[in-house]
Amino acid sequence: MTERITEVAVGATRTEGGTRTRSYRVGGASALPGMGDAGARPLIALEICDDPALWPVVVLEEVGDLAGDLSGWAKAAEERWGADLVRLVLTSTRRRGFDDPASSGKAVGEVLAATGLPLIVEGSIDPALDTGVFRRCGEAGEGERLLLGTAEAERYRSVAAAALAYGHAVLAQTPIDINLAKQLNILLRETGVPHDRIVIDPYTGALGYGFEYSYSVMERVRTAALAGDADLAMPVISAAQDSLTVREVREAPEGERVETAVQWEFYAAFSAAVAGAGIVCVRHPGTVGMLREAIADLWGGEGWR
Amino acid sequence: MKALEVYKLLPKTNCKECGFPTCLAFAMKLAAGGAGPERCPYLDEETKALLGGATRPPVRAATVGVGARSFTVGEEIVMFRHEKTFYHRPGIMVCADDTSPLEEVRRNAEEVRDLVVHRVGQDLTLDGIALRCESGDPDRFAAASMVVGECGDLPRLLITADPGAHAAALKVCGQFLPLIHAATAENHEEMAGLAKRYGCPLVVRAETPEELADLAARCTAAGVRAILLDPAPRTVGDFVARASHLREHAVKRASPDLGYPLYLDTTTLGTDAALAAGILRYAGVIAVPPLPRPSLLAALTLRQNIYTDPQKPIQVTPGIYPVNNPGRDAPVLLSVNFSLTYFTLLGYLEAGKIPCYLFVVDTAGLSVLTAVAGGKLDEDLVKKSIESTGLAGTVDHRTLIIPGYAAPLSGRIEDATGWNVRVGPRDAAEIAEFLEKGE
Fold first, then answer.
1. Does B182 sit behind a cis peptide bond, omega within 30 degrees of 0 on the bond before it?
2. Which of B82, B238, B305 sits opposite A211 (nearest CB)?
């Protein structure tokens, strides 16, 4: 394994043409963790949303009033919980009859103003809305080098166009399949999105709900890239987004629900880091600190090489 | 070594004395690790040794405990589960100190013994008690190990650097084949002597691969039958790096004295991260402090996930499953016998409190999407399943709700079965809303 994972810039500081207080280069590894030079430690993104009606109850109980206050929530992600990135999920676009793409752009602007952290934006999931939503989001974040998602095989043009027009990187999601991941990267390249502006999302099932497939696909994507497959050599992002609505969390005894929620996210996100993910995403604030410590510990190892 | 390379070393006389019809058949069995070279009476010692070294599993087996709860680790052959599978899930053993009141030790052991988590049709359990000698008193250590033994045949792990304490404990529980931790540069002769006398598996502990290999070789030479390696990590990162190094050397058969299962004690490493790391990266036995239930649940689930054979999805038995006490007019939902699909769907249906029947057909454990794409789920299967389960006698109506991903089959199922077909959602999360809306 002598190849390296392509570095993708996320976020832009003033000197880089944006307003972020820090920026990252995700990628750069030439081996999986524990097997050589694993590059910079994985980044931790805390997910927030603009319409809490579609958000896990266990998170809403934790964040309280912040759920209705996008600025406050984003600020807390940085200052209180210590996330590396904010991932804004525009859940409002998933409501039936949504017809206000301008509000999506506004939400992006509001989060950018509230925090200095680089931003991942998760837009609409409906081809009828995509063009408007992604254009507004891209525009609102111009120069900030957002990570804009999500491109899928059936609907990637709107995201790609917005990313190219306003200088962002693209999240490329495929359903737990290494060949589909590769195909989508090729499609994006043919659309004009360069390799160093793509992050692979191989889709992460929740722990106990197909996580093993995701874990192995992440390992396969990483080992294929390190063995020389340039069309898979982008950083991987992992977000086990169903973690907090699985049966184990829903049905946990009252006094154990928060701890179960945090562990369910933690075990999946930490495992993704071991499998070579460059960004891991969680929703419960309690998971962030635990994950940060564990990843630092994982990166603080002495091997025998 | 590949079968053809093995074949070149055999007599090629096809004498059948090994029990196989031809030398080539024997070679294939040898290469797969399914037979030993000693079955051929015509090999010289040198060839036997060469074949023996090249055809045994790269990570040797070790069994801890006796009886129904005993477990075997090792016999792994790959670095990544997608290359084949991981065979023996790591044993998780919960620590107790011998300075604790004996009643507490007993309670801990009983809790470990009785913990069962039911998930996707399997029972997940912990594997044993790790008894740590904190008292420095061999009699106390022996007494505590007796107490653990009174809680049933739970495998035991005895932890102390003092061979005297081990001798005392083994006198009372040696016949139950506990795992002994640990032989080091200082004490390995006495430890190996004890492990040999009682036939127990032994952990050797050292900071470098050279020292580990040296200790393993010495203990094996002293007659110890089963060995585990403890690479003495100070951080989770140490463990992952060292375990990966050891597994790689074992799989490549680079150094036979490193081809043993690994031991990890998470106590000083930050438990959840270390436990997850051990499950993901090659631990055979993991000693953990008593864990809160949420941690245990997540760890056992991760272990179940990682040690599922990628080629054999967990399956449920095909048939009709009533959910929420359905009546004869309740809707019938067609699904597949991929365990994950079944339990995910069941979860949403139970949460939605809607009475219905889950009608599970046999797709050999494939999901809806892959079963449809691969032709495993088709109108013939549905027709046969309706007949073999007697579905028509269970409900008064003749309507099947099929998964969204099976939509292309709807017309053909109607034609073949005479049942009406409604196409349901693709995502199980939307099933409750779909059923509530009704016709």
1. yes
2. B305
Contact between B241 and A250 using a beta-carbon 8 Å cutoff: no
- Give the DSSP letter string of A267-305: HHHHHHHHTT-SEEEES-HHHHHHHHHHHHHHHS-----
Distances (CA, A) of B277 to A36, B241, B252, B299: 16, 10, 22, 10
**B238 contacts A263 by C-beta, under 8 angstroms:** no
Sorted by where each starts, the structural domains of chain B and their CATH numbers stand as 3-55 (1.10.15.40), 62-306 (3.20.20.20), 319-437 (3.40.50.11600)
The pTM of the full predicted model, rounded to 2 decimals, is: 0.89
Whether residues B82 and A274 touch (CB distance < 8 A) is answered with no
Contacts of A293 in chain B (CB under 8 A): 270, 273
Q: List chain B residues with CB under 8 Å of A219.
A: 80-82
What ipTM does the predicted assembly reach?
0.97
E strand or H helix at B101, and its extent? none
A225: Cβ contacts below 8 Å, ≥ 6 apart:
A3, A5, A232, A233, A234
Sequence-ordered list of residues with C-beta below 8 angstroms from that of B215, at least 6 positions apart, any chain: B183, B184, B185, B188, B204, B205, B206
Select from B85, B86, B212, B244 the residue whose CB has the most chain A CBs within 10 Å, as the one to mutate to test that interface. Answer: B244
Query: What is the per-residue pLDDT for A305?
Result: 62
pLDDT in tens, A16-49: 999 999 999 999 999 999 999 999 999 999 999 9
From A264, A297, A302, residue closest to B298, measured CB to CB: A264
| Sole residue written with tokens 């031809």 | B22
pLDDT (0 to 100) of residue B313: 78
According to the model, what pLDDT value does residue A228 have? 95
Please tell me chain A's helix, strand, coil percentages from 3-state DSSP, rounded to the nearest 5. 50, 15, 35
Q: A38-95+110-298: which CATH topology?
A: TIM Barrel (3.20.20)
Low-confidence residues of chain B: pLDDT under 70:
33-34, 438-439
